[in-house]
Amino acid sequence: MRKKQFEPLLISEFVEDTFHLPMHEQNYYELVYIRSGQGKHIINKFELDYERGDIFLVSPADKHYFNIHEKTHFLFILFTDSYFMQNRRHQKLYAWIMELMNDRGLRESKLHMTDHDRLIYSHLMEAVRLYCITAINQRSQWLFDQLVAIFGRYKEISEIQRLPQAHTLHIDSSISAYIHQHIFTPEYLQLKTIAQKFNLSPTYFGIYFKKNFGSSLREYINMYRIELIEHRLKSTAYTLKQIAEELGFVDESHLSHFYKRTKGYSPKAYRQQQTK
């Protein structure tokens, strides 16, 4: 496929036994589709297994690499923030795409898809691949609509994946998405701030949240912080000090106290158990 630097949209594919780039950053946002093959996606010190049908998001803030175990066919959709924000109408309609791309929790984890989801994506991706195999029409409305559909389905799956298991689908999943997108910036997760974001009074929002999520806002946030801590503890590349700084704790002692109060054992004990 034709490849030009600094275009708003690039689509390329590679079939490789060894990934063609070292650990690297990039100028573009990326959606990576695994057309075939197996291996590991290493992103920001995390190792995520991949197989046929998997999808990964990557932003310019990330460092990533693919450790290929079985010859892999990659399809890369690379774009700048200007592609989906071409005019005022697009800015209002498609701001959620950039919110997805800037969500670290999504980029540093694997999207869990059903066989049905993978089948849908195989058709969407193949259509885009075939359409762009000789050239990319940057102004194609058809191509734009297909890419919006690809990201739209990703958004739906990720929102369902993040809801508590007891949740029903009529709940406004945008609240959950907001919390996950801002987990690394605690100032955005104050009850008053979130209530204002969703045009509700703080008192009503607290009642609404507990009724529909089965826990208080603070409990929900703390459980997600525990999930992120454990995700990082599984990687020996992260020190307790780094985890504490990243998640807004005063120091590693504060993190350890928070974790032990919730789980009943220390983060060091959890890490030792995972590395046995």
From TrEMBL:
Example GO molecular function: sequence-specific DNA binding
Matching InterPro entries: AraC-bd, Homeodomain-like_sf, HTH-like, HTH_AraC, HTH_AraC-typ_CS, RmlC-like_jellyroll
Protein name: AraC family transcriptional regulator
Keywords from the UniProt entry: DNA-binding, Transcription, Transcription regulation
Domain of life: Bacteria
All copies of domain HTH araC/xylS-type, residue ranges: 173-273
SUPFAM superfamilies (UniProt xref): Homeodomain-like, Regulatory protein AraC
Gene3D superfamilies linked: Homeodomain-like, Jelly Rolls
Keyword Metal-binding: no
